[in-house]
Design goal:
single chain, 393 residues, alpha+beta, Butyryl-Coa Dehydrogenase, subunit A, domain 1, Butyryl-CoA Dehydrogenase, subunit A, domain 2, Butyryl-CoA Dehydrogenase, subunit A, domain 3, 3 domains, acyl-CoA dehydrogenase activity
Length: 393
């Protein structure tokens, strides 16, 4: 469903007003999160069968780009909930009573969900492996024990979606829905990143945290529990739209500076100089080009994992380069916090850090290219023609 541009812009402005303080303090960005909640955007992807608007992944990417222009930390925290609603709309894998209860709760306050998957020893599950976190069966449900890393929005989440293995024989692996604030939950304030500071992606430790037996998603055999990076490629591309918003905010800051800066020896804005016209053109090429790449790929369908992965990497590299050009072109003022470019520069560094990271994504593309070549070789081996075989990307 298309979203009102005025609503998106007004929400982005509210986020932008609060972003500098959230970045400086590193505290949970409640002002921005409440603005997203009040706009209705947090529930944008709730399925129509649950009374929601049924926004698609393409719609979600448009929303995230707008929120990213305002505050990418708020956008990233919001994305986790938006994507979880989208997953439920597609797979209907949540226990019905639990999901409906959460939707009711979300009408009263921001409902914030996020997966807790990364572990100190395992690292990101995008690289393979199974969780050490244990879900022990009790008389009344499950008891969760383990430690997770990089839990975005940890202090403000209403529920952690904790990936764990059971103590059953044979063991199973699943996602356990753990309300925040229960006894045994400890947020360890160790997020001290270059950028995206207000995401509060701290470690969280769970010690014998009790939850009901039915509050678990997709308990499966460990042999089928590996993260499928290809299956998540479209969603990961949509996440990149947050950083498109960062680059667009940086582009706007660059253009405004160029029009407001009038050196006395020049007598007119530096925007009229050939140097800044050329810099503006380079930035526009990269930023607007990235927008086309992201949204053309999301619009195209059907699912094409290699296209999504390729688009994400190309767009991410362009967005990072565009912000770097803006900062470098302005010089010292670009490194001053007052202009905002310095914060955008720090935030954009995270564009390709999210799992699967760049090297894993490149490996997927490399293997796919080899497989394509092998299939074409096998298909052409029975032909006697001397004409070359056309190899498509």
């Amino acid at each position: 469903m298309p979203y009102d541009t005025n609503l998106l812009n007004a929400t982005a402005r509210a986020l932008a007003d609060a972003a500098p303080d959230a970045d400086r303090s590193g505290r949970f960005p409640w002002v921005g999160i409440r603005a997203v909640h009040e706009s209705g955007l947090l529930e944008s992807t709730v399925a129509a069968r649950h009374g929601g608007g049924g926004a698609t992944l393409y719609d979600a990417a448009q929303i995230l780009a707008a929120l990213g222009r305002g505050d990418p930390s708020v956008a990233l925290i919001s994305a986790m909930t938006i994507f979880n609603h989208l997953g439920q709309a597609a797979k209907n894998h949540w226990p019905e009573n639990l999901y409906r209860r959460l939707l009711v709760e979300g009408k009263q306050r921001p409902l914030l969900l996020n997966a807790a998957r990364v572990e100190p020893e395992l690292g990101s599950p995008a690289r393979g492996g199974l969780p050490a976190t244990l879900a022990r069966r009790t008389a009344n449900g499950w008891s969760i024990t383990g430690r997770k890393r990089f839990v975005t929005g940890a202090h403000g989440l209403t529920h952690f979606l904790v990936w764990a293995h059971t103590d059953e024989t044979p063991a199973r692996v699943g996602t356990f829905v753990v309300p925040n604030g229960l006894p045994g939950i400890r947020v360890i304030d160790n997020w001290n990143s270059l950028g995206m500071r207000a995401t509060g992606s701290h470690d969280v430790e769970y010690t014998d945290v009790e939850i009901p037996a039915e509050d678990v998603l997709e308990l499966v055999d460990p042999s089928v529990a590996q993260q499928d990076n290809r299956a998540h490629a479209a969603m990961t591309l949509a996440l990149t739209a947050i950083y498109l918003g960062v680059a667009e905010a940086a582009q706007e800051a660059f253009i405004r500076f160029a029009h407001e800066r009038v050196p006395t020896n020049l007598g007119h804005p530096i925007a009229r100089t050939e140097r800044f016209v050329a810099l503006s053109g380079e930035i526009d090429l990269l930023v607007c080009g990235a927008r086309q790449i992201i949204f053309d790929a999301l619009k195209a369908g059907p699912d094409d994992a290699e296209r999504y992965i390729r688009s994400r990497i190309i767009a991410g590299r362009q967005l990072r380069e565009a912000v770097q050009i803006a900062v470098r072109g302005i010089g010292n003022p670009g490194l001053n916090a007052e202009l905002g470019l310095e914060r955008h520069f720090r935030d954009i560094q995270s564009v390709l850090v999210h799992a699967p990271q760049e090297d894993t994504s490149i490996s997927i593309l490399g293997r796919a290219a080899f497989d394509r070549w092998n299939r074409e070789e096998a298909a052409s081996s029975g032909h006697s023609s001397d004409l070359p075989i056309l190899r498509t990307a």
